[in-house]
Amino acid sequence: MGANLTAETLELMKVAQSSPDPLIKSFVQPGTATTGVQAYNLEAPSKKLYPVDTPLRNSIARVPGGYAIQANWKAITNINVQNVRAGVSEGNRGGVINHALTENFAAFRGFGLENSVNFEANYASKNFEDVKALAVEQSLAALMVQEERLILGGNTSVAMGQTATPTATGLTTGGAIPGGTYSLIAVALGLQAYIDVVGVNNGSSGQYFSAATASVPGQITRTNAGGSTDSFGGGSAQPSAAQSVTVGATPAGSINATVAGTNGAVGYAWYLGSAGAEKLVAVTSVNSASLTALPAPTAQLASSLGAADHSTSALDFDGLLYQAFKPGSNAYINTLPTGNSGLTADGAGGIADFELAFVNFYNKFRLSPTVVYVSSQELVNITKKIVANGGAPLLRLTTGAENPGTISAGLVVGEYLNKVTGTKVALRVHPNMPAGTILFYTEKLPYPLSNVSNVTQMLMRQDYYQLEWPLVSRKYEYGVYADGVLQCYAPFSLGVINNIANI
């Protein structure tokens, strides 16, 4: 310090105030969310933005009391097999009748999912959310989503075999396929495989199909919690033999392809490329495809599926679709022909394909389905065709008194009148129903003394239960499980229309 102490002190204060030192004379609002003295404005708990849409699981009765390894039941399906006439002559006895009896069984299956929380995750979530409870809740929700898939499309007994060899025609217009000779392979897809590829209701928002990244499941080998493994079919048929197709000299070619339908298929995957290097290029819900571009370099190779049928899984029980598809079920199956133009309007405010189904159900079994499960695509198409072929007078326009200059318009078919029985049949969108497939479902039988209180039920050896496994590391491990089987006492009351084009 010099002789002029006051002057020097003032000068040092000026320097300090003009320097970038963090000590400033007042607090101001920080310029970013992570600087300065401020709190973190985080809303607790986390938002759960994923669908858990399980209409069949929610509506089908769950019955306790299952035991042994399978459910067994007998059904009398005919009380006069030879149709013996009832007339009798004087003094004599009547003819003797015979009945038909079927033996039925369905093996129990366990199903469950696991989740875990390590100690550090638990520490970090304090004062925000109980992540241990969240792990269990999400495991249960995910299990419900997977159980819905099983109830609709589990397949343990309908082997689809090898997909038929496709036929194909190369065109010089309509796309961006260069001229050349290509190899085409088709793979029939069961519901489980189709859902995996297309991504509907898999417990995530915004899923969609991308041929560049999608993967058709073949044989699945899964490493389980605890280190064990399971191998099972992913729901796809054996790939077809390759078909050669030539596109003439052009930079704008396309390929039209068809394949014979496969029992149990709700969709088809198409692989295109040079022989031996065919890659996934499209997935359709009908047995035909219009291919307009070559596969992406990252697309799945057909060779990755191997030369085997992976359509069934020993870990599944048969869902409603496959109880209908099963040979001998007597369910109504109507696979529309290749190149169809979708469901057919009947010219009287109805759908001709529905009328055929209802006549079949009544003539053969004297019953009516109570629900028709459809995809969003089919509900829109059904509404459009009904309104356009005699249903237009049903259109209603509404307007509110508070804003008379605005009208609300629109119509959706929520029920369909079975003209044969006079029954109103509900139409419901199912989140796992593929476009191009419709399921007729019967909730009540019109038979007296049938001893069937639930036409379809989940018979449970053990309903949902939670396990917290012993600690073997600094991690909490949880499992949510159930054990049961889907029983349908009257598979003949089911019906399927599939291979419906989107027109």
Description:
With 503 residues, this protein is of the alpha+beta class. The protein folds into two domains: 55-79 and 99-158 and 316-397 and 408-498, Major capsid protein gp5 fold (2-Layer Sandwich); 167-305, no CATH class. It contains eight helices and 23 strands. The longest helix has 23 residues, at 131-153.
State the gist of this model:
With 503 residues, the protein is an alpha+beta fold. The chain has 8 helices and 23 strands. It has 2 domains: 55-79 and 99-158 and 316-397 and 408-498, Major capsid protein gp5 (Major capsid protein gp5 fold), CATH 3.30.2400; 167-305, no CATH class.
Helix vs. strand class: alpha+beta
- Tell me the CATH superfamily of the largest domain: Major capsid protein gp5
Provide mean pLDDT, rounded: 92
Strand content: 25-35%
- CATH fold label of the largest domain: Major capsid protein gp5 fold
Low-confidence stretches: none
Tell me how many strands there are: 23
If classified by CATH, what would the architecture of the largest domain be? 2-Layer Sandwich
With helices defined by DSSP (H or I, 4 residues minimum), what is the helix count? 8
| Largest sheet strand order | 14-23-20-15-19-18
Tell me about the biggest sheet? 6 strands, mixed
Shape: globular
The CATH class label of the largest domain is Alpha Beta
> Percent helix among the residues?
10-25%
